[in-house]
């Protein structure tokens, strides 16, 4: 089960980097497409930490960071390969996948800070409550880490690019949206933890057999 959770984590992480270029609007909220996907990665690290332990969750975060670096490297290489004459979308391809160095740095730094904070807070609460109150540590760790993630990313990526009041508005808007998603995904945390533990018991039984 861990393999699937880890693969899902890394897959969603890479997908969020691609989807970040799309902006969507709900009422007054203007958000990047990555906001829908990226917040789920915090749910997955919480589930992995709950079932497999703190160090395993940290290794998952580290694996995600390395995968992002490798992914960015290959995207950079492919973007700058000479386009075939039959391929008439090079400019669009560069706009969607090329991004900017500043945004990439902002993404990596916010990821490192927030994901490690999420794991730390989650397991400090777990040390106090044991296996009880999963909903509390899932929400507290995600809410805190998402504030750090959103603030670091937007400040580094957009400082000096947009007015300060717009910058603050972007932080608040994205953070509120991520809070809503974090609250909604709480039942899924329980379902995934239950499923993962059941699979671990099953695998352990097979090994004993």
Could you walk me through the main structural features you see in this protein, from its secondary elements to its overall organization?
It is a single chain. By secondary structure, the chain is mostly helical. It is 81% helix and 4% strand. The chain contains 8 helices and 2 strands, in the order αββααααααα. A two-stranded antiparallel ribbon has the order 1-2. It is globular. Its main location: membrane. InterPro entries: YhhQ. This is Probable queuosine precursor transporter.
What CATH first level would be assigned? Mainly Alpha
Query: Can you list the strand order of the major beta sheet?
Result: 1-2
Distance between the termini: 19 Å
Number of helices: 8
Number of strands: 2
* CATH topology group: Arp2/3 complex 21 kDa subunit ARPC3
Structural class: mainly alpha
Radius of gyration: 19 Å
Order of helices and strands: HEEHHHHHHH
Any guess at the CATH architecture?
A: Orthogonal Bundle
Helix % is over 70%
Largest sheet: 2 strands, antiparallel
Number of domains: 1
Subcellular location: Cell membrane
Family: Belongs to the vitamin uptake transporter (VUT/ECF) (TC 2.A.88) family. Q precursor transporter subfamily.
Main location: membrane
Function: Involved in the import of queuosine (Q) precursors, required for Q precursor salvage.
Brief sketch in words of this structure:
This protein has 8 helices and 2 strands; from the N terminus they run αββααααααα. With 209 residues, it is mainly alpha-helical.
Blueprint of the fold:
Elements: H1 2-19, E1 23-26, E2 29-32, H2 34-52, H3 54-79, H4 90-97, H5 101-129, H6 134-158, H7 164-184, H8 186-208
Antiparallel strand pairs: 1-2
């Amino acid at each position: 089960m861990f393999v699937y959770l880890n693969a899902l984590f890394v897959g969603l992480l890479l997908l969020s980097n691609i989807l970040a270029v799309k902006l969507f609007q709900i009422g007054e909220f203007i958000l990047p497409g990555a906001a829908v996907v990226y917040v789920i990665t915090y749910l997955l690290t919480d589930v992995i930490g709950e079932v497999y332990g703190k160090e395993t969750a940290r290794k998952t975060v580290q694996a995600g960071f390395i995968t992002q670096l490798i992914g960015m490297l290959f995207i950079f290489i492919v973007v700058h390969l000479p386009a075939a004459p039959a391929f008439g979308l090079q400019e669009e391809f560069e706009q969607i996948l090329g991004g900017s160095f500043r945004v990439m740095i902002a993404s990596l730094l916010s990821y490192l800070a927030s994901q490690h904070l999420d794991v730390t807070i989650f397991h400090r609460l777990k040390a106090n409550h044991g296996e009880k109150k999963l909903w509390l540590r899932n929400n507290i760790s995600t809410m805190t880490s998402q504030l750090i993630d959103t603030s670091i990313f937007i400040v580094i990526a957009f400082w000096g690019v947009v007015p300060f009041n717009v910058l603050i508005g972007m932080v608040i808007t994205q953070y509120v949206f991520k809070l809503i998603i974090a609250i909604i995904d709480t039942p899924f945390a329980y379902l995934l933890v239950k499923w993962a533990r059941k699979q671990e018991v099953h695998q352990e039984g097979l090994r004993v057999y």
